[in-house]
Amino acid sequence: MSLAVILGSCCGSKEEKCANGQAEPAKADSCPVAKFGKVDTASMNVEILPAMAYPKGSPVDKWGKLKVAPNEKGVRSLCDQNGKPVQLRGFSSHGMQWSGVANITEENMKALRNEWNCNIFRLAVYVDEEGGYAYNPTHRSRYVENVVKWCAENGMYCLIDWHTLTPGNPQDAKYRNRPETGIDLAADFFTYCSRRFQNQKHVLYEVCNEPNGVDFENDKFGGSKWPDYNKPRITWNDFIKPYCEDMLKIIRSNDKDIVVICGTPHWSQRTNDVIGNEPADENGKVYDNLMYTFHFYAASHNDGRHDETAVKFWDVDFMKYFAKGDSAKSVPCILSSLPVFVTEWGTTDASGWTNFRPDLADMWLDIFNGKNDGGQKVSWCNWSFSAEGGACAALKWNDGNMITMDKKILTESGKYIYDRLRSAKD
Q1: Same domain? 127 vs 240
Q2: What φ, ψ does residue 396 adopt, rounded to 5°?
Q3: What is the pLDDT of residue 390?
Q4: How far apart are CA 298 and CA 358, in angstroms?
Q5: Domain assignment of residue 8, given as a range
Q6: Do 22 and 149 belong together in one domain?
Q7: Are residues 10 and 130 in the same domain?
Q8: Closest Cα to residue 54, out of 194, 123, 148?
C-alpha cells in the first residue's frame, strides 16, 4: 500500500509524496500546502529483508514475535507469541554520533547476550543533536542495519528508538519538515524501517523518546528551576498522541502487528496522561500491540522522599503511582491500566552525573518484576551502554575489551546492572 493511500488522498502524480499523502506540487498552487514534509521514494521502495534466523534456544527463538496480551489478572502486558508474559532486560545505547563507534560493535552485541545475559538492546537514534541522524545519513545504512543484524545473530530483541529530545515536540519541523530538504524525517524513517524489517520477529519500535516542553523559541524555562512535573507544555492530546497516530498509520501499513512504544509527556514521566485516551485508527479503534514509556532515574524519581539531588521531584511518589495508584492525586494504578515499557532508566540522579543509588534502583526493579497491583512484568533498558554521560554510564573510558568481560572496565552502575542481568531468569 502506498503512503498516499495510508495518510490521505493524493492531488498529483509525482512519485515523491508529502507525509500527509499529498504529492509534492509541480507549481505552488497545484495542491494545498502540506502540513508536514515528504517521504523519499527510496524509503518507500526499499528492499524488504528476508526473515533472519535466530540461534536455537535464544530469547527470540523461544518467544518469537512479541505481542501485547492480558496477563493472569487481565492486565495488558508484553507477551510472547503464545500470549505468555515475558520481561525484556538490557541496555540502551547512547548517541551513535558520540559513542557508537567505540561501543556499538558486532563483538559487543555478542558479549551483551553471552556475557551479560541481555535479551534486548535499544538503539537510540538521536535526530537533531550535533552529528545526529538529520546530519548523517549513514546512521541508517550503518548503525540501524548493523544492529538489527547483530541482535538477530545473537537472538536478542532490537528496539529502534527515534530519539526525540531537543526539540522536545515530536511534531517540530526539525523532525517533520526539514527546511533544507522538505523531508519529513520521522515519517521517512519509519517508512523505511517498517518496510525493510517487516519480516523480522525481533524488531520493536519506539516512535518518540522523551517528549518535553522546552523546545519553543523564546519560551524556555528560566533559571535553575526544573520544569514543573504537573504542568507539561508538550501535552499528550495536542502533540504526542496525534504524532503517534501518524507514525502508527505508516508502521501498520507495512507490519500490522509489530509492538510499538509511544513516548509520554514530560520526558516520558507522565505515563498516566495516556489512560483512557490511547492512539486510535481512523475508525476510532485503539491500536493493538501498543505500549507506553516510563523513564526514571532512581535518585530523582522515587517515592517522593526529600533526598538532596541535582534534579528532584520531592513529594511526587512515582513508585506509588505505578505499583498501586494514588486516589488522592487522582492517579489510578498505572501498571493495572496500561502496558508499560521502561525504555530508559538510570541508577543515578536524572542529570546522570551523580548520586548512584542501587537501593532505590532495587525498589523499582522489584515493582517491575511483578510487585504491583496489575501483576505486570515490566521490561526495561538501562541507560546506558557507553562511557558517556557520567555515573549512569556502564563503561569506563578505554579500559579494555568486552570479551571476555572483566569488571575492571565497569563503573559502579555498570557492575550493578551486570549483576542484575546475570542473576535474572527468563
Answers
A1: yes
A2: -85, 165
A3: 84
A4: 8
A5: 1-35
A6: no
A7: no
A8: 148
User: Do 333 and 236 share a domain, yes or no?
Assistant: yes
Cell output for 279: 492512539
Q: What is the pLDDT of residue 220?
A: 43
The 10 Å CB-count burial string (b at 16+, else e) for 170-202 is: bbbebbbbbeeeebbbbbbbbbbbbbbbbebbb
Residues 64 and 177 in one domain: yes
Is the domain of 16 the same as that of 153? no
Check which CATH number belongs to the domain holding 364 and give it.
3.20.20.80
Q: What is the longest distance spanned by two Cα atoms in the chain?
A: 64
Instruction: Decide: residue 168, CB within 10 A, 0-12 exposed, 13-18 middle, 19+ buried.
Output: buried
Distance CA 205, CA 149 (A): 15
Looking at the fold, whether 266 and 118 belong to one and the same domain comes out as: yes
Burial 97-132 (b: 16+ CB within 10 A, else e): bbbbeebbbeebbbbbbebbbbbbbbbbbbbbeeeb
Number of domains in the chain: 2
Q: Per the structure block, which three cell numbers stand in for 223?
A: 533559571
Nearest to 341 by CA among 309, 296, 282, 407: 296
Beta carbons within 8 Å of 410's beta carbon, 6+ residues apart: 394, 395, 396, 418
Residue 226 lies in a domain: yes
Residues 264 and 317 reside in one and the same domain:
yes
**321, exposed or middle or buried, with CB in 10 Å at 0-12, 13-18, 19+?**
buried
Chunk the chain into consecutive blocks of 10 residues (it has 426) and report each block's average pLDDT, rounded to whole numbers: 31 43 38 68 97 98 98 98 98 87 86 96 95 89 95 98 95 94 96 98 98 58 59 93 98 98 97 98 97 98 95 95 96 98 97 96 98 98 90 79 75 96 90
What's the confidence (pLDDT) of residue 230?
A: 83
Model pLDDT, residue 35: 72
The C-alpha atoms of residue 253 and residue 222 are separated, in whole angstroms, by 43
Return the number of other C-beta atoms located less than 10 Å from residue 12's C-beta: 17
Question: Would you state the cell numbers that stand for residue 145, as one nine-digit string?
Answer: 542495519
